[in-house]
Amino acid sequence: MTFGTFPAPLTRRSFLVRTAACAGALALPAGRARAAATRELTLTPAPAKAALVGPPYPETAVWAYDGRVPGPELRVAQGDRLRIEVDNHLPAPTTIHWHGLRLPNAMDGVAHVTQPPIAPGERFVYAFDAPDAGTFWYHPHYASAEQLERGLSGVLVVEEPEPIRVDRDLVWALDDWRLDRDAAIVEDFGSGMDMSHAGRLGNTVTLNGRIPDAVAVSTGERLRLRLVNVANARIFALRFENHTPTVVARDGHPVTPHEPAEGIVLLGPGMRVDLVLDCGADPGARASVVDVFPRDPYRLLDLAYGETPLRESPLDASLVLAPNPVPEPDLAAAPTHEIVFEGGMMGGFRGGREMMRAMTSRGLAWAVNGVADDGGHTISPLLTVESGRSIVLDLANETAWWHPIHLHGHAFRILERDGAPEPHTPLADTALMAPRERMRIAFVAEGAGDWLLHCHVLEHQVGGMSAIVRVV
Ligand code: C2O
Ligand code: CU
């Protein structure tokens, strides 16, 4: 696999200051089953400080949920009812979108579409059930390109009643930041340059809110790693040196356990992959996890083995998770719609120069079926479909750039890419499309309302690459 469009972050070169810090992931023991319950939670987005880089650099002024970057790791049980009160202490309006959850449209958290923005000083209560187990996340859906980049995002884990057996269940929230020499966020959000190219790529990659160095592991240990890409634009392609991870879920939904293609875990913005990693190296060993997406691959972190093995031979337990109750599309009955993404540098529009001029005058760079959403979401729906109907979308990326395409409130099956069947036909809510690639997906429309379909490179989203699927 070759990628070769991104520059590597300056992580190890410019901020090589941390030496033996553990990744600091929060883990709860797996294996607790409990009856469905109502979980009452509060989240307070507010300005805060975060030690992204660490001494001798100053802390970074961020926006954060409950003062933490990433926000608190929410863990609930499958089937629980969530009641989450959001208390906006930001100097700006905001909302929270529950990325990947199948929930009522009014709880989807999209400003100007499913709710008015929550003004500074105001509160809003989100209440919904968590029907699917898996790894999900939450983030604002108001001025997203700025608000996520300032630090607003967090991971939501919905635990299976019967999880797979592992020794530790770790969340790895991957982010990247554009920092200046004083570790302050460069405030050029949504610049035209970022919008029309690969999006806002940072120079500093963090894992769970800090530059990672080593994650301590033990010989014989089995880890469940919940990888979540919360970056605005950075795509990760992770290779685990001397280790063979097994993919067990994609965007929260179980897949037949398999090794990632070519040993590379590819993770576009918004995507999640659950891995099982058997730590088979000798006590005292180190193995790097390398991001090979950029032109110059860089070491993300090391797995650092302790001196005492946990067990002699690897754990022998099933890696198969029970499927989620997602309705299966009826392909024979499903109409097919073609969705064309166009624009960006070295791209152009089917509508030619006139379209290009119109786009430029509105400060936009991308269009979906010839229509660009300026962020006000006042466009008419891309398509309207009855609830309960199956639908096939033929997505065509007619651009020179990668796009992680996200559909709100649904899990779709990825059927084909460029006419070839997608291995394991995973369920997903966000799927990465390579330049010029075509991808065929299918899903059952659920829940009346307007659901966004957009690129999760947030600068592309605000640059017009967003549309509405209306379910009636
Ligand atoms: Cu994760 Cu429309 O977003
Ligand atoms: Cu995009």
Please report the number of helical segments.
5
Question: What does the oligomeric state look like here?
Answer: single chain
Assign the CATH architecture of the largest domain.
Sandwich
Biggest sheet record: 7 strands, mixed
CATH domain fold name of the largest domain: Immunoglobulin-like
Ions and ligands: CU-O-CU linkage, copper (II) ion
**Percent of residues in beta strands?**
35-45%
Task: State the domain count.
Answer: 3
**What is the number of beta strands?**
32
Radius of gyration: 21 Å
Query: Which stretches are low in confidence, meaning pLDDT under 50 for 5 or more residues running?
Result: 12-33
What percent of residues adopt helix (DSSP H or I)? Answer: under 10%
The name of the CATH superfamily of the largest domain reads Cupredoxins -  blue copper proteins
Mean pLDDT, nearest integer?
A: 92
What is the distance, rounded to the nearest whole angstrom, between the alpha carbons of the first and last residues? 42 Å
Query: Which CATH first-tier class of the largest domain would you pick?
Result: Mainly Beta
